[in-house]
Design a protein that fits this description.
Blueprint lengths: L4 H9 L10 E4 L4 E3 L13 E4 L2 H6 L3 E2 L14 H12 L7 H6 L4 H12 L3 H18 L4 H7 L5 H12 L10 E8 L6 E6 L2 E7 L5 H12 L1 E5 L3 H14 L16 H11 L7 E2 H7 L6 H9 L12 E2 L12 H13 L2
Parallel strand pairs: 2-4, 5-8, 9-10
Antiparallel strand pairs: 1-2, 1-3, 5-6, 6-7
Helix pairs in contact: 6-7, 12-13
């Protein structure tokens, strides 16, 4: 996907994050290079040059911007937060108070801002979600309500009951028919993704900046009669391991269990997507022919767009009839990046 100078300059002028990963902006007068979405003041066109990779910028003598941090992964979780999340995953009953954070040299308000931006809740609320997730699973596995509450870090049954009902809409003793969907942020070279999982497997894998995420979350909750709650899931570790291998060019097929939710027609389309060989592409028309509905191009395109499990169900391998980069929920630049990755490692 070749972009003109004017297109890239327009993107940087508008701080357009949809061009993340496509190019970097280098400023001749300051010797600094930035992301397209950098909020810093935009210099004149004659003082700018564009590069495809951060490596090219560095080789030309440019330094990374201290405002947009172009060498960091997009929306990546800071290491100190990763450590805290790991500890919570291992023991959901843990309670990190402001004093505990300060002893680690961390500023509580900084954590609060990060969690509000990336999860829409405070750090304290995030911890409560982990505890309530743990308690829910304990009850489902046969623990008494009292055992589940106190073993998950709650200090009173009344407080536990109120929180449980607030999150799940039912009391603990009436929760047997209620389900839970675990959610986790997953880091990738293309930006952070949300992964959702249930007992059967991964049911969602989407980039966090996808606009329809909220709609997809509501659909999952409704169809599975379940609440999406921060928590760990056995499928997450395998997912992260295999995604890492994929991005390193070492994996061409995934074996992570999946739970796909859709109509019979959508499942037919997704099945054809999963059969597209690594490093190859197909068109909507060919998909339609394969499933025996040669005139259903629009329906096939819609079905591809309704796929909620990116990369594992590789809709990025579906292009226009002439091989052009057609729409992709994660952004055209990500689609091109994934196809280039596969072509290099074919």
């Amino acid at each position: 996907m070749e972009l003109s100078f004017d297109q890239m300059y327009k993107a940087t002028s508008e701080n357009d994050a949809s061009f993340e990963g496509i190019f970097f902006t280098a400023v001749k007068t300051t010797g600094i290079f930035c992301r397209p979405s950098c909020p810093a003041r935009r210099p004149k066109p004659e003082n700018i040059e564009f590069f495809s990779t951060s490596k090219e910028c560095i080789l030309k003598g440019y330094r990374p911007c201290k405002v947009c941090h172009p060498l960091e992964k997009l929306n990546e979780t800071p290491p100190y937060i990763k450590q805290i999340l790991t500890e919570l995953s291992e023991d959901p009953s843990l309670k990190f108070k402001d004093n505990d954070l300060q002893k680690r040299g961390l500023e509580p308000n900084q954590l609060r801002r990060w969690f509000m931006k990336n999860h829409g809740i405070t750090f304290q609320a995030y911890q409560r979600m982990f505890r309530i997730n743990s308690a829910f699973k304990r009850i489902q596995n046969g623990d008494t309500i009292t055992e589940a509450a106190f073993n998950s870090g709650f200090e009173s049954l009344s407080g536990f009951g109120d929180t449980f009902k607030q999150v799940f809409g039912v009391s603990p003793k009436n929760s047997k028919k209620q389900g839970i969907i675990d959610i986790k942020r997953v880091e990738t070279p293309l930006g952070t993704m949300y992964a959702c999982a249930v007992k059967q497997g991964i049911c969602l894998l989407e980039f966090t900046d996808r606009k329809v995420l909220e709609t997809e979350f509501k659909y999952l909750s409704k169809i599975l009669n379940a609440t999406i709650v921060q928590g760990d899931n056995p499928h997450f570790s395998l997912l992260e391991e295999q995604l890492k291998e994929y991005f390193e060019g070492k994996r061409k097929k995934f074996s992570v269990p999946l739970l796909t939710l859709g109509s019979d027609f959508q499942h037919k389309v997704w099945d054809t997507v999963c059969k597209i060989p690594y490093g190859e592409t197909t068109s909507y028309k060919q998909q339609a022919i394969t499933i025996g509905s040669p005139d259903a191009l629009h329906a096939v395109a819609n079905a591809n767009g309704m796929n909620k499990i990116s990369i594992l169900i590789p809709c990025h391998r579906v292009t226009g009839p002439d091989g052009s980069m057609t729409g992709y929920g994660g952004g055209i630049w990500r689609k091109k990046w994934l196809l280039d990755l596969e072509e290099r490692n074919l």
